[in-house]
Amino acid sequence: MKFRPCIDLHDGKVVQIVGGSLRDNDTDALKTNFVSAQSPGEFARLYQSDGLVGGHVISLGSGNHDAALEALNAYPGGMHYGGGVNPDNARLFLDAGASHVIVTSWVFSDNKLDMDKLNALSNAVGRERLVLDLSCRKKGDDFYIVTNRWQTFTDEKVNARTLESLSACCAEYLVHGVDVEGKSQGIQEDLIGILGEHSPLPVTYAGGVARLADLDLVRRLGQNRVDLTIGSALDIFGGNVAYRDVLKWVERNG
Hints:
254 residues; alpha/beta; TIM Barrel; ten-stranded mixed beta sheet; three-stranded antiparallel beta sheet; 8 helices; 29% helix
């Protein structure tokens, strides 16, 4: 299990928000936990200096192009990029320094996975540089992939069949537990269990971490096969979990 850092961008600034609160044309709905005075590049250089690789830079809406490129340029090859990625612009972010690009909404049509689109993107960037974002919300007993700023339920479940069938098209998965994202009130244990048992690829979980002990919990529930991102709970984002304590945990358990 690895710790994967993050840089979430909104209006060109590094932020942490409550998952699912970002909506088109409804700024009043956005619930922001944290806005940093530090630049995206400063966070990227921090992660680079601490030897953290495979984290992600995520653009939440428009107005983040320059900020994203700043972060990617500051840590070439060290982080993934996600946010509006398609075959026409993916190469731009890779050339700017992203090791991988992350995609969700573009590969869906009418709430169903569009394999033609997915194959087109995979062919454009190479399977080895593509990460599929399978961020999901729970409905009934199942987790369904959500798109369009996590507002729209698709017909696709996060389960053994989906994780296996998509593994031929990408290198990794990124999965936010949207129902708990940004709330620092606890992780989605059943989702982590699914990922740990069934993902044939490296997979990173994000959402709900509240305390340092959650790293041990994720490692156990995910069978030491699920990597973890921590956002709002980290002290560098205004939370109560010390970033330096996370680095010490990584050193002890790496």
